[in-house]
Amino acid sequence: MKIGSPRLTVMKALCLLLVLGLSACAQADQVVMMGDAPYRIVEYTKGEKLAGATKLPPEFAAEPPVGGCIPSENYGYRMCKVADPSVVPLNHGNVVRPHHSKWSNVNSDGTLYFLGKNGETPIGRGKGQAVVFRVSDNSVFRVLSDVNSHENVDLRWDRTGNHPRRLYLTVNGSQWHQYDMSENGESAERTLIHDFAKDFPGGLGGISSGGDGETDISGRYWPFRVMHPYHAVCRNNFNFQAAIVYDKETDTIVSKLDRDAYIAMGGDPAVWDSCNFKPDAVDVSPLGTKMVVTWYRNNRKDPFDGPHAYNFDLSNPVKVCNTATHSGWGFDLDGSELFVCQVNNNNWEGVDADTITATNIHTGEKKIILYHEDLGWDVGGWHFSRPYELSMRGWVLMTFYASQSGRVKSPLRNQAVMLELKSYDQHPRIWRIADLKNNIETSSKAYDREALAPLSPSGRSIYVGIDLITGVSGSEGNYAFNSVGHVATYKIELPLYWWHVLNGTQPPTPEETANELRRRKLRQAGK
């Protein structure tokens, strides 16, 4: 939809108060038209516990077939099933879902996506844990039955835009491979890119990002957590050896935080040498400007006390969270990179405990956005996403879940929302995208039901794994859910340029986007 069309002009008028942030909008769901659909937005005020947000009963629906959609009477969306366990040959895990929320499962040109399943194809071969689908009709493009595609191999898409059918993965512990699929998906070729064993001659026990890490949006810089060989430091363990960033363009390691660097920066060698020591994950910022290592808190107030963002030469360490918790990424309105996280304790100066906080990874400026007690303590967890679109500024996607979801009273229970990246005293808005109809209480394998929901690179689609609620009984605070008992993946489509509508800005022209990409590449090259 083009800016200036009658429909969008009406839509912009309806959300004008929201854009201007006027107090008349405070603490009430604003119904905003985007395209043909109404969307709910509530403005957050600290201490009011979302009291003015419209409380809606939990939604449920009969399970549709693959390709079938579930409309919502209360929210401006429909949720369409794209995959369930039955579509995958020999899947015995009863789960098919995105691997993670923090990086996208959709390829660079938006034609393919992949999902993970709790099972192997063929069974017992240690392979085939991921499946690639076509976006156009959700048909199976390729089951990765020739490689181990479990979450721990860091299966990721090429982000350069030049190889939309290329995936990357780790093999045999130390090797990083590219996996090129044919045009019809019937065959694939795997090629060694780099063997990190040559960079660590003392031995290497494995490389991965830790699950969270992703390349920058140009696809140049790749983060890895390098481990010692099994038994090398501690019995029955792989101990941490280094956090690195690999430059695929030059085939070199451009950032390396190992034991020597750790000690030189003030780290305690006894901590490094202790058994079980390792950060939760290693990541690269969306624009490829910093390495982020998500350390656990140590209360030493050193550059390793909680997650920190480092320049590639390890200078300018900036603390970005109090410890290794759920986190994600966003862009500020000026394009600055923001690390967004769940702060779960009071060990970070200037930041209150039990908040969602965004930090500028270069300046260290922090914004406390939302207080957990206002959301409701019964909402026990959430996941965050990552942006790939340069102009998608000012918002982060979140999905909420709770282990006792039938007892949750928060109006945001079980929902996918966009949270505005503003300080709480500026009354950030919350776009209530969808009731996910997800039941987390049906299985001991609750992690599969945590509503893992990555955002597509275009910012237009959300893929989410859910155990669909098909019936609800009881009353507020004591609901009981019936659900299908397996995890399928559903897709939610978002309006075109929704972030520009909500921010009151114009979409960039193709020329402006090209110029921004050019400037970013020059910055990466140090020019």
Describe the structure.
The protein is 9% helix and 32% strand. It has one domain: YVTN repeat-like/Quinoprotein amine dehydrogenase (Methylamine Dehydrogenase, Chain H, 7 Propeller), CATH 2.130.10. The strands form eight sheets. It has a six-stranded antiparallel sheet with strand order 1-2-28-27-26-25. A four-stranded antiparallel sheet has the order 3-4-32-29, with no helix packed on it. A four-stranded antiparallel sheet has the order 5-6-7-8, with no helix packed on it. The longest helix has 15 residues. The radius of gyration is 23 Å and the shape is globular. A hairpin with an 8-residue loop joins strand 9 and strand 10. With 527 residues, the protein is mainly beta.
Sequence of strands across the biggest β-sheet: 1-2-28-27-26-25
End-to-end gap: 37 Å
The number of domains: 1
Mean pLDDT: 90
Draw up the topology in text.
Layout lengths: L5 H9 L1 H5 L9 E5 L2 E7 L25 E3 L6 E6 L12 E2 L14 E6 L12 E5 L5 E4 L12 E2 L8 E6 L3 E7 L6 E8 L10 E3 L12 E7 L12 E8 L4 E7 H6 L4 H4 L9 E3 L6 E3 L14 E3 L7 E2 L7 E5 L5 E7 L11 E6 L5 E6 H4 L5 E4 L10 E7 L13 E6 L8 E7 L25 E6 L2 E7 L2 E6 L4 E6 L4 H6 L6 H15 L3
Antiparallel strand pairs: 1-2, 2-28, 3-4, 4-32, 5-6, 6-7, 7-8, 9-10, 10-11, 11-12, 13-14, 14-15, 15-16, 17-18, 18-19, 19-20, 21-22, 22-23, 23-24, 25-26, 26-27, 27-28, 29-32, 30-31
